[in-house]
Design a protein that fits this description.
By secondary structure, this protein is α/β, with parallel strands linked by helices. The protein has one domain: 3-Layer(aba) Sandwich (Rossmann fold), CATH 3.40.50.720. It is 47% helix and 17% strand. It is built from eight helices and nine strands. The strands form two sheets. The protein has a seven-stranded parallel beta sheet, sandwiched between helices. The chain has a two-stranded parallel ribbon with strand order 7-8. β4, α4 and β5 form a beta-alpha-beta unit. α1 packs parallel to α2 and α4 packs parallel to α5. It is globular. The model has no long low-confidence stretch (mean pLDDT 97). The structure holds nicotinamide-adenine-dinucleotide (NAD). The site of nicotinamide-adenine-dinucleotide has 29 residues, from α1 and α6.
Amino acid sequence: MGVLEGKVAVITGAAMGIGRASALCFAREGAAVVVADIDDSGGNDTVDLVRAAGGQASFVHADVAQKSDVDAMVAHAVTTFGGLDLAHNNAGIAAPMALLADYPDDGWDRTIAVMLTGVYLCMKAEIPRMLERGGGAIVNTASGVGLVAYPRQAAYTASKHGVIGLTKVAALDYGSKGIRVNAICPGTAETPMVGTARERDPSIDAHLAALHPIGRIGTAEEIAEAALWLCSPAASFVLGVALPVDGGYVVP
Ligand SMILES: NC(=O)c1ccc[n+]([C@@H]2O[C@H](COP(=O)([O-])OP(=O)(O)OC[C@H]3O[C@@H](n4cnc5c(N)ncnc54)[C@H](O)[C@@H]3O)[C@@H](O)[C@H]2O)c1
């Protein structure tokens, strides 16, 4: 029997990358998974992959920056699978890179809307449904860049630092009510987001490997396994952490 048997999970940004790997991991452990994304085709492909592996999943189109979409996403979990126990708030975008004084304001606004306000809106909608079930667990995807800064990445760095702050507040507000809220801080993981960066700069691989003391970048599955652990009963005394899953990226 899987460690998430009988649980219902929402995973945002699950059409590809870390979110898809997380959907497959959570479903492997018995959770019924709501796959949420703005990419309908990729989201439905994730559902097919979960079902082909013997799991349960359902796709819902949701832009995490839109409160009405997020509310409908959580309602979808309740109507489709009967409630909500777990959430991996993970959707993200590749933010613009520029020196702060030159930073594009529209890029700042969209990055904060998706990566910070999105996590806020998701937790706000998810928590009441989890309280109805007597508790739950939430893991938010921050980043190594939630713990340290990256040059020319004002919006991404600020949004991910914000996700860690929000995670800690939610942990303090709801830990005693049975909801454990934690964050993961991935180092670089091989996902379509990294593929986009590689198209811009083909020499990026050697640079990225050198940033990680383990000598390589990670896989989406390695990040997803940490999210799974934080949502599992094995992490029952873990609350409010920002867990690096990063091959040592933030150690130096
Ligand atoms: N890959 C890495 O190296 C890395 C490192 C640190 C943190 N992260 C974080 O991990 C998360 C997942 O990244 P990834 O590498 O898997 O990226 P990805 O680009 O492979 O996948 C991101 C997913 O989010 C979806 N998405 C984008 N905007 C959305 C929105 N407004 N509403 C709903 N879904 C939306 C995309 O359609 C896509 O399916 C992000 O929060 C990212 O910042 C990634």
